[in-house]
Amino acid sequence: MESEGMTSAKRVLMIAPTPYFSDRGCHVQIYEVARSQQLQGNHVAIVTYHLGNDPGHIPIYRIPQIPWYHKRSAGPSWHKLYLDLLLLGRTLQIARRYRPHLLHAHLHEGAAIALPVARLLNVPLVLDLQGSMAGEMVNHNFIREGARLYRLAELTERTIIRHVDAMLMWSYIRESLQRRFDFPPDRVFEVDYGVDLERFRPYAKEDLQDLYEELGLPRERQVVVYLGVLSAYQGIDLLLDVIPRILASCPDTHFLLMGYPDEEQYHAQAHALGIADHVTLPGRIAYQQAARYLALGDVAVSAKLTSMEGNGKLLNYMACGLPTVAFDLPGNVATLGEVGCYAPVGDGLALAERIVTLLRDPLERKRRGQELRRRCEDLYSWHAIGAQINAMYDTVLARRGIAISSPSAHSVARDSSSGGWN
């Protein structure tokens, strides 16, 4: 195959078995990967569920409306069995018009949906791994580890891995996944995760007066921020339990815990612990506004307890120049490097101590925040990572002997203008 054939724009069809876009980490990653490929000159479209917002820039094609299904939070659901059948049909419909050079499937589910389409069209299939499917089901208490359904989920994962042409494996989950699954080395392409350094940046607190008023945050308090899914496996229960200890040492501290879906449950838990006056749970925060909300913080925290999926929120914290406390999971350490503040996994008291140490030392907070921002600029720019993903596409296409003809996206553009955005 001629190497110069790879210089033409590629048509990439992404399959996202999720209510895209719903202002959470998985969806941010899908958006940023797609956007990075547009900036590489490729044509990208996304096929997804009927629910979700449109963050702009990328054509979205949805399954028919399902009036009784409204779940936009993370986690498995039995409803996905028929949603994914609908997504398979929609993917095939769009693929026949779009004529993609390759399919880019997000999550194992997406690869299972895309596999028959890829075989029918004779195009490569890339699996974008954001974690373990069986691990996610356990984290969300959908199945028990070791149970029959768990073994079936792991078997399904292994089967999917054997049948895709390539796997995009994010560095922060590589170690934990490779301990559990055998990946064909020639099909694994490891890249670092990225962050939008223009969107996520430090803000001066004097420019955030509207948010202080909106949230009712006391200006005299130092603020510990969290932004992500609110659930037990993210360590929110553990974090709330140690807040009284933090307040005993630093009484002028406030906790801004942003995200969904269980904000009401945690609000009640904060009341039960007697800390409600020091905790604000505003619920879902729009991705476009996330950096300004994070800028309210003096310290950022992630108490996530699992290494079986990514922790992209860390990069948002880093890009905003926030000193960050997290458990010493391999992915966290790889992302934050020596500048992160770590506690042993599951040790809530140690986590509280690390937060208190930063709250008491403004100079150390400033130093760590600045170094984390520089680390993002050096290592986690989407421009460089997008080029790596594009090079992976080139390699996968070359292995299949697929040449890229002159770029064209007219078919999908016509579909969009005639109701393809349903």
TrEMBL record:
Organism this protein belongs to: Candidatus Chloroploca mongolica
CDD domains: GT4_PimA-like (cd03801)
PANTHER family: GLYCOSYL TRANSFERASE GROUP 1 (PTHR12526:SF639), GLYCOSYLTRANSFERASE (PTHR12526)
Name of the protein: Glycosyltransferase family 4 protein
Location of the Glycosyltransferase subfamily 4-like N-terminal domain: 25-190
Superkingdom of the source species: Bacteria
